Amino acid sequence: MPEPHLRRDRWWLSPALTALGLLAFVVYSSWRAFANADYYAAPYVSPFYSPCFAANCAEMKGGPNLPLFGEWWGLSPALIILVFPLGFRLTCYYYRKAYYRGFWASPPACAVAEPHRRYSGETRFPLILQNLHRYFFYAALLVALVLTWDTVLGFRDAEYAWGHMGLGTVVFLVNIVLIWAYTLSCHSCRHIVGGRLRHFSQHPVRYRLWGWVGRLNQHHMLLAWASLISVALADFYVYLLATGTFTDPRLF
């Protein structure tokens, strides 16, 4: 039987590595989200648990304690907030391509035949929910603002005195820069900034912003992976501190 494609290279390697990378993050984030422990080591709070909306959150002085969910919420508070950043990433245009190819082989690679007999696109449940991406973008902006405040709080020491900086502060700074870069490079952000304009010349400010977002958008895939790795590393760093495995080195 003839090959369904003419590619003789290792076309399967890219979707396989993508699937492994995404699966590794899913396993790690699930473990940490359900753990409900070791997510705060003053002055750092794990980005998986921020903001903390449940009454059973660890007490964080000056931190993102917003007990909107009362004592009845007995599960991990991370399960409340992670819905929004994960929803943003799951519906992201790049991540759709990544897990469609990596997990569903739809299609497995460019110029490789799709194994599925029928394709209905994103017009049926559950894939029609991908259209919620623009709304998850607004939620992701709010989460990024909270994580920015968490990064600012990282300029305190373990006794909450200001004017200090540890290695964790650097980790959080790198993470928040990557999160903002990924969020603002989103296609929805590009459309909100410069979409639906008939004449760019009449909107010079929006046109300039559209150009900036467009340049970021060219690196959207790289930023998607870099921010995914950085948020996991930031959480793992807090875990090491909270469990006493590692002591945060002070830079000043």
Verbal overview:
The termini are far apart. The strands form two sheets. The chain has a two-stranded antiparallel sheet. Strands 3-4 form a two-stranded parallel sheet. It has helices spanning 13-35, 78-81, 83-90, 93-104, 133-153, 167-184, 187-194, 204-217, 220-242, and strands spanning 40-41, 44-45, 52-54, 65-69. With 252 residues, it is mainly α. Helix 1 runs parallel beside helix 9 and helix 6 (167-184) packs antiparallel against helix 9 (220-242).
Q: Largest beta sheet, briefly?
A: 2 strands, antiparallel
Strand order of the largest sheet: 1-2
Separation of the first and last Cα atoms: 68 Å
Helix content: 40-55%
Q: Which structural class should the secondary elements be placed in?
A: mainly alpha
As a whole number of angstroms, the C-alpha radius of gyration is 21 Å
Residues in β-strands, percent: under 5%
The overall pLDDT, averaged over residues, is 91
Number of strands: 4
Order of helices and strands: HEEEEHHHHHHHH
**Would you identify the regions where 5 or more consecutive residues have pLDDT less than 50?**
none
Helical run tally: 9
Query: What oligomeric state is this?
Result: single chain
Overall 3D geometry?
A: globular
